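USER:
Try writing one entry.

ASSISTANT:
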Amino acid sequence: MIRLPHLLAIGLATLSSFTQAAPIPEDLKTGGFAIGCQAYTFNNFSVFEAIEKTAYAGGKVIEFYPGQKLSKEEPNIKFSHDAPPEVWEKVKAKCKEHGVTPIAYGVVGLSPNEAASRKVFEFAKAMGIIVINTESVEALDTAEKLVKEYDIKVGIHDHPKQPNNPNYRVWDPNYVLEVTKNRDPRMGACADTGHWVRSGLKPVECLKILKGRIMASHLKDLHAPLPSGHDVHWGEGVSDVKGIFDELKSQGFVGPISVEYESNWKTNMEDAKACIDFARAYGAQK
């Protein structure tokens, strides 16, 4: 005879399997986190080159964005969820060649139309991506249904505050928390720390607001707390990257972190490497 508590335990374990995405393997982590590059760092180059540069920088994972040209040999082919599956396979093969694992995709628009959003989730599933980053809060009902079906997380990304557009609200972590707090636990924020600084916010305080709802991060360090602040190596600016890492670790954060270095566009491979080196040194100190 199976006792009721045992049945309850089985039920809870089953529920957990549907509400918790699989953990990121330890061998994909640097300094205790899954850190790689957002391919937008290398948007002056192709997807293939972004993969190569990510590997050089020490990134074991990569976040793709829609619309980047595939390669120098095929510059007219754009990589995205709208590309044919054979293009996806070429990118997967290039990642495997360089020991880089696709982990996130964004920032990409999602639609309240289920068929349109399903294309993004199907692409993510095919690529092995675990987080889709978006700013499409109008599509969260549809996204939540697909999150449950595909076991893929959704992070709401923030760009800087727009003083002339009060309808743009995702810059505010309190707003992101409000629209996600009662949803599936795999829905929350893609914390862009640099854009928080540009909005006059302190990243560590923002992370505390969003505790338990941080799915991914675009981590930047800026030279000054200004809307015009430009990227510098992690630990050399005003963003308190060590404090960010400390807070993420204290929260038990398990998502990916993307270096999104939006300066020195044509020569920023060494900049990305310096950021990942900072993370490696942080992990060594711990």
